[in-house]
## 1
Amino acid sequence: MPTDLELRAPDGQPSSRTVVPDRETKRPEREFVRFTRLQRALHACMIISFISLALTGMSLKFSYTAWAVMLSRLLGGFQTAGYIHRTAALLMFGVFATHLYDLYRLKKHEYKSWRALLFGPNTMLPTRQDLKQFLATMKWFLGMGPRPLYGRWTYWEKFDYFAVFWGIAIIGSTGLALWFPILFTRFLPGSFINVATIIHSDEALLATGFIFTVHFFNTHLRPEKFPMDTTVFTGHMPLAELKRDKPLEYEALVASGQLEANMEEPQPEIVVRTIRAFAWIALSLGFSIVVLIIYAMLFAYR
Ligand code: HEM
């Protein structure tokens, strides 16, 4: 199939003929639609809830530091920080439930069966091809091979996605135990609440560290995206980026004649600017939280 990129490679394996075009400088007339409006809204709500949970949670965890005292004063005191924490947790549970419902809708209207959704070419589940692409990427990092040709979801995007499922299960269930200790100790021993506190606290630290370093790097800080990738906020990706970042998806869309149906005019400039401001605030808060945690762990003592 003719494309303006040399893409041919069996099973998404590296092709030495891949051409990586430069970043587009002027606004394109039409862009590829990667995320629906609901998906974008859910991601924005997830950001708001996660940053609120991390800010309030870390101010409780490191309450012996001067920054935590200042932060909790700003939030209205440690007790109010606790209320904000619980409200943000409800928002996160709401986002998760809505996403599951969205998957069900996707299965019903687009994929027609769970099998097609879970095991089709665009699956979010890890596959053997992801393992191959992971290994090929490591080789590429070491200068021992070309960049692999990725499809709709890369292995690191799948990893980030399932980290949320894992996080909700562990942090969410232990958080509920801390919230409703009397209910939980009706069927579990009292010592479970102590264990739940440790698990909740340490898993929260891991999640915060991961999201605000690895996830931020993978999405925004790698050279092709630096300083920010707005795709998940605008829902749109310039066609040149789709060809460069996800050549297998591009090829499949061209082959099935679906590409044209997935192109739209870019978001209005004012929307893009507002989105950028929101994303910059989120990125800055995330990085600041990491710096405060590192400071507390290295220099502050109980
Ligand atoms: C999603 C559901 C969650 C629920 C239901 C929940 C609930 C709670 C509750 C009830 C507490 C005790 C607060 C208090 O004593 O006033 C707490 C503490 C805490 N939460 Fe959460 N939380 C959730 C998610 C998170 C997330 C996503 C993070 C971090 C990213 C987090 C970080 C923390 C931390 C660090 C503490 C303090 C633990 C300590 O004292 O060492 N929580 N949480």
## 2
Amino acid sequence: MNDHSPRRYKGTLLERAAEQFHYGQPPVAPPPVAEPRYAPPQMPAYQAPDEPLELDTPAIRRGYAEEAPVQKIASGRRTATIDREALRKGGMIVPGGSVTPLAEEFRLVKRQLLLTARGVAAADAQRARMVLVCSAQPDEGKTFCAINLALSMAAEKDVEILLVDADFAKPDILSRLGIPEGPGLLDVLSGAVGNAEDCIVETDVPQLCVLPAGTKSHSDTEMLASDRARTVIDGLTAANPRRIVIFDSPPALAASPASVLALHAGQVMLVVRADRTSESDLREATAMLDACEHIQLVLNSVSLQPGGRRFGSYYGYGYGEAGK
Ligand SMILES: Nc1ncnc2c1ncn2[C@@H]1O[C@H](COP(=O)(O)OP(=O)(O)OP(=O)(O)O)[C@@H](O)[C@H]1O
Ligand SMILES: [Mg+2]
């Protein structure tokens, strides 16, 4: 086991998030808001699926890809090359790059999400393939985590990852990945584009596609809550039984679309920034996202580096100050 092995540190991001916010201990006083439905993250017990599931592969169970996946490019879609240098500069996972502590952390996080996707009853399976990446307040690392999660999941066998920029007020995914702007989800919801599949951008990272936010309007939340949105969003998972849809969400307490998106998603990955997120914000955010049954906390501890605007590492690795 090398020095970067997760076993060397104090548990996974999920466990440390639970520890940070005193999960499992009785509260000193009753919380001021309705008791949220989150609980200490636990690996669900394995349940044999009724029918063979495409996600039930040895590679997924171990959290590692066994061989390079085959890239299938659908005809007629936009294609784009992901800017590896931008990923490197942003401190993100670089496809094909060396295995970093960050990559190891996201292997653990994605495995939890994939296990939940596999473990739910067949009736909820399609919904469980939709993961909303959210946080209580702005700037807590949602987009950072959504991109890293998508890159990590795309390395799995037998999946297609669709990263959806659903932060309509502050769409960041395309610029972070170096992908040119184009039509997206809002254009489909407004009816300007008939089919969401036509807006999807195939990337040069095998098994990773992106759905841009599209053209803003004043009624984004209403459009998201519409029957058409239900059809469009359900269609994203229905179009491909191997597809996992990751939504980069707006912050739960600063924008209304997050709670509407939680109605659609089967899992929420709630990013908690260790140096910023307050416990009351966390409780309020989980209450707002309560429409989603599976809420997982991920602790993102970033620290400003001396002498620059660069942020540091994930909590617990102790390499944020010097080892970059
Ligand atoms: N663990 C991390 N390591 C390095 N940089 C990070 C980390 N987490 C976040 N950052 C950086 O912090 C900044 C804010 O993160 P990000 O944009 O992902 O937050 P956000 O929650 O999506 O913000 P917004 O609500 O404005 O959309 C970005 O520059 C991002 O690259
Ligand atoms: Mg963002």
